[in-house]
Amino acid sequence: MFCTMQRYFSKEPPKKEDKKEPPPPKPKMKRFKIYRFNPEGNQNVKKHYMQEYTVNLNECGPMVLDALEKIKSEHDCTLTFRRSCREGICGSCGMNINGVNSLACITKIKTKGKTKIYPLPHMYVIKDLVVDFTRFLDQHRRIRPYLIKNEDKFDEGQEYFLQSIKDREKLDGHIECILCACCSTSCPEYWWHGHSNPPKDFLGPAALLNAYRYIIDSRDSGTASRLDQLRNYYSVYRCHQINNCTNCCPKKLKPGKAIAHLRLFLAGLKKKPKPEMGGTIKSDPEKGVRGNDCTTKKSKC
Protein backbone atom coordinates (compact mmCIF):
# COMPACT_ATOMS: atom_id res chain seq x y z
CA MET A 1 0.00 0.00 0.00
CA PHE A 2 2.74 2.42 0.97
CA CYS A 3 4.72 1.60 -2.16
CA THR A 4 1.72 2.18 -4.35
CA MET A 5 1.08 5.61 -2.83
CA GLN A 6 4.77 6.46 -3.09
CA ARG A 7 4.78 5.60 -6.80
CA TYR A 8 1.66 7.65 -7.32
CA PHE A 9 2.95 10.78 -5.63
CA SER A 10 6.41 10.42 -7.10
CA LYS A 11 5.07 10.74 -10.62
CA GLU A 12 5.92 14.02 -12.26
CA PRO A 13 2.94 16.08 -13.29
CA PRO A 14 2.33 16.10 -17.02
CA LYS A 15 4.02 18.94 -18.76
CA LYS A 16 1.71 21.58 -20.18
CA GLU A 17 2.24 22.20 -23.81
CA ASP A 18 3.24 25.76 -24.49
CA LYS A 19 0.50 27.37 -26.52
CA LYS A 20 1.86 29.32 -29.37
CA GLU A 21 0.70 32.90 -29.46
CA PRO A 22 -1.11 33.77 -32.67
CA PRO A 23 1.00 35.82 -35.04
CA PRO A 24 0.20 39.54 -35.12
CA PRO A 25 -2.23 40.51 -37.86
CA LYS A 26 -0.79 41.89 -41.02
CA PRO A 27 -1.00 45.67 -41.10
CA LYS A 28 -3.79 47.08 -43.22
CA MET A 29 -2.35 50.27 -44.54
CA LYS A 30 -4.80 52.82 -45.88
CA ARG A 31 -3.98 56.08 -47.64
CA PHE A 32 -5.93 59.27 -47.00
CA LYS A 33 -5.58 62.33 -49.18
CA ILE A 34 -6.80 65.39 -47.29
CA TYR A 35 -7.33 68.97 -48.38
CA ARG A 36 -5.14 71.44 -46.50
CA PHE A 37 -5.52 75.19 -46.34
CA ASN A 38 -3.79 77.65 -44.04
CA PRO A 39 -4.60 81.33 -44.66
CA GLU A 40 -1.67 82.36 -42.45
CA GLY A 41 0.91 80.19 -44.21
CA ASN A 42 4.27 81.43 -45.44
CA GLN A 43 4.52 83.01 -48.86
CA ASN A 44 6.89 80.26 -49.99
CA VAL A 45 4.37 77.54 -49.09
CA LYS A 46 1.17 76.94 -51.00
CA LYS A 47 -1.89 78.03 -49.07
CA HIS A 48 -4.04 75.16 -50.33
CA TYR A 49 -2.85 71.70 -51.32
CA MET A 50 -3.60 67.99 -50.90
CA GLN A 51 -1.59 66.08 -48.32
CA GLU A 52 -1.40 62.30 -48.09
CA TYR A 53 -1.28 60.24 -44.89
CA THR A 54 -0.99 56.48 -44.32
CA VAL A 55 -2.89 54.85 -41.45
CA ASN A 56 -2.87 51.25 -40.18
CA LEU A 57 -6.55 50.29 -39.99
CA ASN A 58 -5.78 47.59 -37.41
CA GLU A 59 -4.92 50.37 -34.96
CA CYS A 60 -7.81 52.62 -35.89
CA GLY A 61 -11.58 52.73 -35.47
CA PRO A 62 -13.93 51.90 -38.35
CA MET A 63 -15.11 55.45 -39.15
CA VAL A 64 -13.46 58.23 -41.13
CA LEU A 65 -13.49 60.45 -38.04
CA ASP A 66 -11.41 57.81 -36.21
CA ALA A 67 -8.81 58.02 -38.95
CA LEU A 68 -8.77 61.82 -38.79
CA GLU A 69 -8.31 61.69 -35.02
CA LYS A 70 -5.43 59.24 -35.40
CA ILE A 71 -3.77 61.40 -38.04
CA LYS A 72 -4.11 64.47 -35.87
CA SER A 73 -2.77 62.77 -32.72
CA GLU A 74 0.06 60.71 -34.26
CA HIS A 75 0.98 62.18 -37.64
CA ASP A 76 0.13 65.88 -37.93
CA CYS A 77 -1.26 67.92 -35.05
CA THR A 78 -1.90 70.89 -37.35
CA LEU A 79 -4.75 69.13 -39.17
CA THR A 80 -7.94 71.06 -38.36
CA PHE A 81 -11.53 69.81 -38.47
CA ARG A 82 -14.73 70.03 -36.44
CA ARG A 83 -16.15 67.20 -34.35
CA SER A 84 -18.15 66.80 -31.18
CA CYS A 85 -20.68 64.02 -30.53
CA ARG A 86 -19.18 61.23 -32.73
CA GLU A 87 -22.71 59.78 -33.15
CA GLY A 88 -24.27 61.72 -36.04
CA ILE A 89 -26.26 64.05 -33.78
CA CYS A 90 -24.45 67.39 -33.67
CA GLY A 91 -23.65 67.73 -37.38
CA SER A 92 -20.20 69.24 -36.71
CA CYS A 93 -18.07 66.88 -38.81
CA GLY A 94 -19.77 67.42 -42.16
CA MET A 95 -17.27 67.14 -45.04
CA ASN A 96 -16.93 65.82 -48.57
CA ILE A 97 -15.67 62.22 -48.49
CA ASN A 98 -14.89 60.59 -51.83
CA GLY A 99 -17.13 63.08 -53.61
CA VAL A 100 -20.16 62.71 -51.32
CA ASN A 101 -21.16 65.10 -48.54
CA SER A 102 -21.53 63.16 -45.29
CA LEU A 103 -20.65 63.09 -41.60
CA ALA A 104 -17.21 61.69 -40.87
CA CYS A 105 -18.37 60.09 -37.62
CA ILE A 106 -20.89 57.77 -39.31
CA THR A 107 -19.05 57.14 -42.61
CA LYS A 108 -17.19 53.84 -42.64
CA ILE A 109 -13.68 53.62 -44.04
CA LYS A 110 -13.48 51.75 -47.33
CA THR A 111 -10.58 49.33 -47.17
CA LYS A 112 -9.90 49.47 -50.91
CA GLY A 113 -8.50 52.43 -52.75
CA LYS A 114 -7.57 55.87 -51.54
CA THR A 115 -9.95 58.05 -49.54
CA LYS A 116 -10.09 61.72 -50.52
CA ILE A 117 -11.45 64.21 -48.00
CA TYR A 118 -12.39 67.81 -48.81
CA PRO A 119 -14.31 70.51 -46.93
CA LEU A 120 -17.96 71.05 -47.79
CA PRO A 121 -18.03 72.38 -51.37
CA HIS A 122 -18.67 76.00 -52.32
CA MET A 123 -18.24 77.29 -48.78
CA TYR A 124 -15.59 79.71 -47.61
CA VAL A 125 -12.82 77.68 -46.00
CA ILE A 126 -11.45 78.96 -42.68
CA LYS A 127 -8.74 76.33 -42.32
CA ASP A 128 -8.29 72.80 -43.69
CA LEU A 129 -11.70 71.07 -43.33
CA VAL A 130 -13.39 73.87 -41.36
CA VAL A 131 -15.80 76.08 -43.35
CA ASP A 132 -17.62 79.31 -42.52
CA PHE A 133 -21.27 78.71 -41.53
CA THR A 134 -22.17 82.40 -41.15
CA ARG A 135 -24.32 82.70 -44.29
CA PHE A 136 -25.85 79.24 -43.84
CA LEU A 137 -26.99 79.99 -40.27
CA ASP A 138 -28.18 83.46 -41.25
CA GLN A 139 -30.47 81.91 -43.87
CA HIS A 140 -31.77 79.52 -41.24
CA ARG A 141 -32.49 82.49 -38.94
CA ARG A 142 -34.43 84.27 -41.70
CA ILE A 143 -37.07 81.52 -41.91
CA ARG A 144 -37.85 82.23 -38.23
CA PRO A 145 -37.25 78.77 -36.71
CA TYR A 146 -39.67 79.16 -33.83
CA LEU A 147 -43.41 79.06 -33.23
CA ILE A 148 -45.37 82.20 -34.07
CA LYS A 149 -48.56 82.77 -32.06
CA ASN A 150 -51.23 85.36 -32.75
CA GLU A 151 -52.41 85.34 -29.17
CA ASP A 152 -50.99 88.23 -27.19
CA LYS A 153 -51.87 86.87 -23.77
CA PHE A 154 -49.93 83.81 -22.72
CA ASP A 155 -47.30 83.26 -20.09
CA GLU A 156 -44.05 82.64 -21.93
CA GLY A 157 -42.20 79.71 -20.43
CA GLN A 158 -45.14 78.85 -18.14
CA GLU A 159 -47.51 77.14 -20.60
CA TYR A 160 -47.52 74.28 -23.09
CA PHE A 161 -49.18 74.57 -26.50
CA LEU A 162 -51.39 71.52 -26.95
CA GLN A 163 -50.96 69.25 -29.98
CA SER A 164 -52.60 65.95 -30.86
CA ILE A 165 -50.59 62.82 -31.51
CA LYS A 166 -51.70 62.78 -35.15
CA ASP A 167 -50.59 66.37 -35.72
CA ARG A 168 -47.30 65.63 -34.00
CA GLU A 169 -46.64 62.67 -36.31
CA LYS A 170 -46.78 65.02 -39.31
CA LEU A 171 -43.52 66.60 -38.13
CA ASP A 172 -41.60 63.32 -38.30
CA GLY A 173 -39.04 63.46 -41.08
CA HIS A 174 -38.57 67.20 -40.66
CA ILE A 175 -37.61 67.94 -37.05
CA GLU A 176 -34.58 65.62 -37.21
CA CYS A 177 -32.52 68.12 -39.22
CA ILE A 178 -29.18 68.76 -37.44
CA LEU A 179 -28.03 71.68 -39.67
CA CYS A 180 -24.91 69.88 -40.89
CA ALA A 181 -25.21 71.68 -44.28
CA CYS A 182 -24.52 68.48 -46.22
CA CYS A 183 -27.73 68.96 -48.24
CA SER A 184 -27.32 72.65 -49.03
CA THR A 185 -23.68 72.34 -50.08
CA SER A 186 -24.55 69.46 -52.43
CA CYS A 187 -27.13 71.58 -54.28
CA PRO A 188 -25.91 73.18 -57.55
CA GLU A 189 -28.48 75.96 -57.24
CA TYR A 190 -27.14 76.80 -53.78
CA TRP A 191 -23.65 76.96 -55.27
CA TRP A 192 -24.85 79.53 -57.83
CA HIS A 193 -27.29 81.67 -55.83
CA GLY A 194 -26.81 80.66 -52.20
CA HIS A 195 -24.27 83.41 -51.55
CA SER A 196 -26.06 86.22 -53.39
CA ASN A 197 -27.23 89.28 -51.52
CA PRO A 198 -30.57 88.72 -49.74
CA PRO A 199 -33.39 88.55 -50.60
CA LYS A 200 -32.12 87.47 -54.03
CA ASP A 201 -30.45 84.37 -52.66
CA PHE A 202 -31.61 80.77 -52.71
CA LEU A 203 -32.19 79.75 -49.10
CA GLY A 204 -31.11 76.17 -49.67
CA PRO A 205 -32.65 72.78 -48.84
CA ALA A 206 -31.89 72.92 -45.11
CA ALA A 207 -33.58 76.29 -44.52
CA LEU A 208 -36.58 75.40 -46.70
CA LEU A 209 -37.02 72.04 -44.97
CA ASN A 210 -37.20 73.83 -41.62
CA ALA A 211 -39.54 76.47 -43.05
CA TYR A 212 -41.92 73.72 -44.15
CA ARG A 213 -41.60 72.09 -40.73
CA TYR A 214 -43.01 75.21 -39.01
CA ILE A 215 -45.65 75.83 -41.66
CA ILE A 216 -47.23 72.41 -41.11
CA ASP A 217 -46.94 72.62 -37.31
CA SER A 218 -50.48 72.76 -35.89
CA ARG A 219 -49.29 75.01 -33.03
CA ASP A 220 -47.96 77.71 -35.39
CA SER A 221 -50.14 80.68 -36.39
CA GLY A 222 -47.76 82.40 -38.81
CA THR A 223 -48.42 80.34 -41.94
CA ALA A 224 -49.51 83.32 -44.06
CA SER A 225 -46.53 85.50 -43.12
CA ARG A 226 -44.11 82.61 -43.65
CA LEU A 227 -45.46 81.96 -47.14
CA ASP A 228 -45.38 85.67 -48.01
CA GLN A 229 -41.71 85.70 -47.09
CA LEU A 230 -41.06 82.95 -49.65
CA ARG A 231 -43.01 84.57 -52.51
CA ASN A 232 -40.09 85.60 -54.66
CA TYR A 233 -38.20 84.15 -57.56
CA TYR A 234 -35.19 82.94 -55.59
CA SER A 235 -36.34 81.57 -52.23
CA VAL A 236 -38.13 78.42 -53.41
CA TYR A 237 -38.55 78.37 -57.18
CA ARG A 238 -34.83 78.17 -57.97
CA CYS A 239 -34.88 74.52 -56.87
CA HIS A 240 -34.67 72.21 -59.91
CA GLN A 241 -35.47 69.01 -57.99
CA ILE A 242 -32.09 67.39 -58.66
CA ASN A 243 -32.44 65.83 -55.20
CA ASN A 244 -28.75 65.75 -54.35
CA CYS A 245 -29.94 66.98 -50.96
CA THR A 246 -32.09 63.91 -50.39
CA ASN A 247 -29.41 61.50 -51.57
CA CYS A 248 -26.70 62.76 -49.23
CA CYS A 249 -28.71 63.63 -46.10
CA PRO A 250 -27.11 61.70 -43.21
CA LYS A 251 -30.47 61.65 -41.34
CA LYS A 252 -32.33 60.23 -44.38
CA LEU A 253 -34.62 63.27 -44.64
CA LYS A 254 -36.25 64.49 -47.85
CA PRO A 255 -35.71 68.23 -48.35
CA GLY A 256 -36.68 67.98 -52.02
CA LYS A 257 -40.12 66.68 -51.09
CA ALA A 258 -40.57 69.47 -48.55
CA ILE A 259 -39.72 72.08 -51.20
CA ALA A 260 -42.28 70.53 -53.58
CA HIS A 261 -44.95 70.83 -50.87
CA LEU A 262 -43.94 74.46 -50.28
CA ARG A 263 -44.66 75.16 -53.95
CA LEU A 264 -48.12 73.67 -53.55
CA PHE A 265 -48.76 75.96 -50.58
CA LEU A 266 -47.56 78.99 -52.53
CA ALA A 267 -49.73 78.08 -55.54
CA GLY A 268 -52.80 77.69 -53.34
CA LEU A 269 -53.14 74.00 -54.21
CA LYS A 270 -52.58 72.93 -50.65
CA LYS A 271 -53.90 74.41 -47.44
CA LYS A 272 -53.02 73.86 -43.83
CA PRO A 273 -55.71 71.80 -42.06
CA LYS A 274 -57.23 72.94 -38.81
CA PRO A 275 -55.48 71.56 -35.74
CA GLU A 276 -57.17 68.68 -33.93
CA MET A 277 -56.22 70.20 -30.59
CA GLY A 278 -55.60 73.78 -29.55
CA GLY A 279 -55.14 75.97 -26.54
CA THR A 280 -52.57 75.85 -23.79
CA ILE A 281 -52.05 74.15 -20.48
CA LYS A 282 -50.12 75.36 -17.48
CA SER A 283 -46.76 73.73 -17.01
CA ASP A 284 -46.02 71.86 -13.80
CA PRO A 285 -42.52 72.80 -12.61
CA GLU A 286 -42.41 69.84 -10.20
CA LYS A 287 -42.51 67.38 -13.11
CA GLY A 288 -39.18 68.66 -14.36
CA VAL A 289 -37.40 68.01 -11.03
CA ARG A 290 -35.57 64.76 -10.38
CA GLY A 291 -36.99 62.53 -7.68
CA ASN A 292 -33.73 62.44 -5.72
CA ASP A 293 -33.30 66.21 -5.61
CA CYS A 294 -33.02 67.14 -1.92
CA THR A 295 -33.77 70.81 -2.57
CA THR A 296 -37.48 70.15 -3.11
CA LYS A 297 -39.92 69.69 -0.29
CA LYS A 298 -41.53 66.52 -1.65
CA SER A 299 -38.29 64.73 -2.49
CA LYS A 300 -37.16 61.84 -0.33
CA CYS A 301 -33.40 61.63 0.27
TrEMBL record:
Top-level enzyme category: oxidoreductase
Segments of skewed composition (Basic and acidic residues): 9-23
Cofactor annotation remark: Binds 1 [3Fe-4S] cluster. Binds 1 [4Fe-4S] cluster.
Single GO term (MF): metal ion binding
PROSITE patterns hit by this protein: 2FE2S_FER_1 (PS00197), 2FE2S_FER_2 (PS51085), 4FE4S_FER_1 (PS00198), 4FE4S_FER_2 (PS51379)
Listed Gene3D superfamilies: 3.10.20.30, Alpha-helical ferredoxin
Catalysed reaction, written as an equation: a quinone + succinate = fumarate + a quinol
This enzyme's EC code(s): 1.3.5.1
Localization per Swiss-Prot or TrEMBL: Mitochondrion inner membrane
Family the UniProt entry places it in: Belongs to the succinate dehydrogenase/fumarate reductase iron-sulfur protein family.
Function: Iron-sulfur protein (IP) subunit of succinate dehydrogenase (SDH) that is involved in complex II of the mitochondrial electron transport chain and is responsible for transferring electrons from succinate to ubiquinone (coenzyme Q).
The protein's name in its UniProt record: Succinate dehydrogenase [ubiquinone] iron-sulfur subunit, mitochondrial
